[in-house]
Records
---
Amino acid sequence: MEAEQKQRQRNIAADGQPPVLTAQANVDGSIALIFGSAVDNIGVAELLIDGLPVQLSTDGLFETSLYVRRNGKQVEVTVFGLKGNRTGKTLSLQRDTMPQASGLVFRPLNPSGKRVMPNNDALALIIGVADYERTPAKAAYADKDAETFYDCAVLKLGIPTSNIKELVNTDANRIDVGLTVKDWLARSTKKNASEIYVFFTGHGLASQSGKEMYLPPYDGGPRLLEDSAIRRNRLFDDIASANPRSVTVFLDTCYSGTTTGTAMLIASRPIAIKALKQSVPDGFTVMTAAAGDQTAKPLEEAKHGMFSYFLMKGMEGEADANQNNSITAGELNSYVQKNVSQQSSGSQTLELQGDANRLLVRFQ
């Protein structure tokens, strides 16, 4: 036994070979698994990983795990032979790039989800003007909102396509809007039976006194409101004269004279006008995007008007607060108001007039 020990000591003293080391790492999230083998012709004295001792198996294998910081980590793996000979290896550990917050993300509108009950007695008039002939001030996304609402009218209000009239940009001129209301809508309405839906998105203006509200058509001149724009009360009266059972109006507009940006529609009117609240005819339910002195804003992340986006998202089913497979005007208004208020930091307040209990969406 003593002779063996002396021979072992002579072998250690004569050892000139460094240990043999293999080491690699797999990084999963913030944890790195480091593994490999460490052998020496005489024997391994110690294995250190990141300065800490790690035990070897009888055949020289090792495995350990380490936390890796977000900006990475350099790890030293060192094996020492019994003589003190050493072999080292540096492992560069990098985590996968972590996703950073890149701003709010809003899901695209998709009215094709839950099926609804058909409403063959319903009619829809959809008007959207983004680009006006007589003012350079655009109504952001108004044409896109109108085109998307067409699908909502079919897929969420259950209105047959043959009962929908859509006027977008150049088609939404004063003559065509007037003819649509006085001819197509009047002739298509079944007295005391038809449910009429009106969706208007674009600019709005109030008179200097704030007593009259106007919806400028594509060819309307902001400086000549009375002569070229559609007076809101007259539009409502013309629709009411057809004697429908009910009328529901969605207005993604404002009357202060400011655009969806910060520009004024009339340069000579630098002060926003506060439109005075008006009554609506019997049987009308009117949801307006903003109060009389506010601006109806876009939701840039979704590329829609803020009011229009949440209106249509609510109609997809998100406004069904009591989960009874139907959505009333009150439920829809509450859903839209909550979201619009949050996204506008409280600067945009909806107005609902009429019957809050009116049933709008009926899921199958």
Note: The radius of gyration is 36 Å.
---
Amino acid sequence: MNKFSHFSTKNLQDTMNRIKVIFITGSSRSGTTLLDRILGQVPGFFSLGEVFYIWERGILQNQLCGCGKPFRDCEFWSQVIDEFSAYHSTDFLDILQLQREVTRIRNIPYFIFPSLRPKSFQLKLHKYTVMLATLYRTIANVSNASILIDSSKFAPHGFVLKQIPYLDLFVIHIMRDSRGVVYSLQRKKVRPEIYWRTEYMPRAETWLKGTRVWLIDNFLAHILRITTKNSRLLRYEKFVQNPRSVIEDLINWIGLPNPSILNPFHRERLIKLRVNHTVSGNPVRFVTGPVEIKEDVEWITKMSWFKKVMIGVLTKPLGNHITWSK
């Protein structure tokens, strides 16, 4: 029997201090990892990458941590997993299976309307929530950070985080022009974290598939945002054009004093990225040293006018920020 077998999330709330978690959601190729990395340079903040994939890509597959070491060889994550395992003796394959059963898109109505939950789902949700609560508490203890950043994007994961009473959840929905996302989704990008073979990031090989990905991801992110107390929409274009100002505004929104002093930028667009311990995400998580933030605008000249018009028309209702001059 593990130490938390008799605990509920209420017990956890009563016995532990609260943790602030920034959850970044949105579509792939929208700058979520970049935003995670930049926020992680703020004193007291800690970048986690895509925590949703910790069981599969981190623990079971042993992909590279952001520090460049295989996950199980990373000193930080080794300590986290050792402390987590002291409370939960469950096999990690079982945890992964439980995650897959709980964090399905079709279960979102159960998160929004708890009265609809079948008893079987409620039991699985409770079990997985307690495990996830232990994981975040352990990460906070090992990192000694006051604010954790999770850029998993996947909205059902965000809904599960909302079930943990002692988490103060801040949801940032970052939305990029749909045409830029669709163009980027057609690029071949190597996943360096899979170091034992060559593998590429998931792609949408046609513009229709890319448009569908953008619509689904941002629709689910929209639902999460409007049902979360502390949430906001951030335009990718505004972020990369004025990164220093945007980060300072986010620090102020989260409630920290002296946001201008905490701001990690050396100039409006220049920042120095430190080694991190992110779980998964865009290859930018392996970049360290001085980085100048620039908007990815290749799609403006490389994408055909037909695709621009069609993607713009199909996504206009949700992406009302689209400007037809691009």
Note: DSSP finds 15 helices and seven strands in the chain.
